[in-house]
């Protein structure tokens, strides 16, 4: 039986080490690459061609949404499982729109991550119990939220802006011109009806796009 090859994408080396040990304790599971940034994840995916990628969303510079988008543009069959601290149903939907096949929060039990890896590897979709419940409640209690108006790249730019990155930093991380980022900024404000940049940041926080970076 061929081993399931896996790439880990997380900017915390100690955290990656823990996940790698957990994953490789499972028969037939092998970690073949580890990345800390979206750019490194894209480069290593092309060289290592893993069967499955376990992807965090909070990365330095361009985040996981952008990494998912780029990988899926290069390989439409790529199987990507998000594993993140973001306990946000709207953000989970953006990850699926970008091309993810599963979404598990880091507060989930270890066995839930392993089950999700196996499900996504078989071509299925996986959700941790907390996100599944939040998504169900979200659809029952409201018609839609602010993030529903944004494409995955717009959501990523909003996250980067709300995390304190300057327009110049965002442009460099996404390999776009400063003018393009400024245009995105204006479009995002218009779509969300944000009156000021402070209002825009508040909306991002309310939707769970921004985390305390002290958290793993």
From TrEMBL:
GO molecular function, one term: DNA binding
CDD domains hit by this protein: LuxR_C_like, REC_NarL-like
Database matches in Gene3D superfamilies: 3.40.50.2300
The keyword DNA-binding appears for this protein: yes
GO terms of biological process kind: phosphorelay signal transduction system; regulation of DNA-templated transcription
InterPro entries assigned to the protein according to its UniProt record, in alphabetical order: CheY-like_superfamily (IPR011006), NreC/VraR/RcsB-like_REC (IPR058245), Sig_transdc_resp-reg_C-effctor (IPR016032), Sig_transdc_resp-reg_receiver (IPR001789), Tscrpt_reg_LuxR_C (IPR000792), WalR-like (IPR039420)
Keywords: DNA-binding, Phosphoprotein
All copies of domain Response regulatory, residue ranges: 5-121
UniProt domain HTH luxR-type: residue ranges: 143-208
Keyword Cell inner membrane: no
SMART domains listed in its UniProt record: HTH_LUXR, REC
Modified residue annotations for 4-aspartylphosphate: 56
Source superkingdom: Bacteria
Name recorded for this polypeptide: LuxR family transcriptional regulator
Protein source organism: Prosthecodimorpha hirschii
């Amino acid at each position: 039986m061929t081993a399931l090859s896996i790439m880990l994408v997380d900017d915390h080396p100690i955290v990656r080490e823990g996940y790698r040990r957990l994953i490789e304790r499972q028969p037939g599971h092998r970690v073949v690459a580890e990345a800390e940034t979206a750019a490194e994840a894209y480069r290593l995916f092309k060289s290592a061609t893993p069967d499955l990628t376990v992807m965090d969303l909070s990365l330095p510079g361009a985040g996981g949404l952008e990494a998912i988008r780029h990988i899926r543009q290069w390989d439409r069959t790529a199987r990507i499982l998000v594993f993140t601290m973001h306990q946000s149903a709207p953000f989970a939907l953006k990850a699926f729109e970008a091309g993810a096949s599963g979404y598990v929060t880091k507060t989930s039990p270890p066995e839930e991550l392993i089950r999700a890896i196996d499900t996504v590897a078989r071509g299925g979709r996986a959700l941790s119990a907390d996100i599944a419940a939040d998504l169900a409640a979200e659809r029952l209690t409201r018609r839609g939220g602010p993030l529903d108006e944004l494409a995955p790249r717009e959501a990523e730019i909003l996250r980067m802006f709300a995390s304190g990155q300057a327009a110049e930093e965002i442009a460099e991380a996404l390999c776009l011109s400063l003018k393009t980022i400024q245009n995105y900024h204006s479009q995002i404000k218009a779509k969300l009806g944000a009156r000021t940049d402070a209002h825009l940041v508040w909306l991002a926080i309310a939707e769970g796009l921004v985390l305390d970076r002290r958290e793993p």
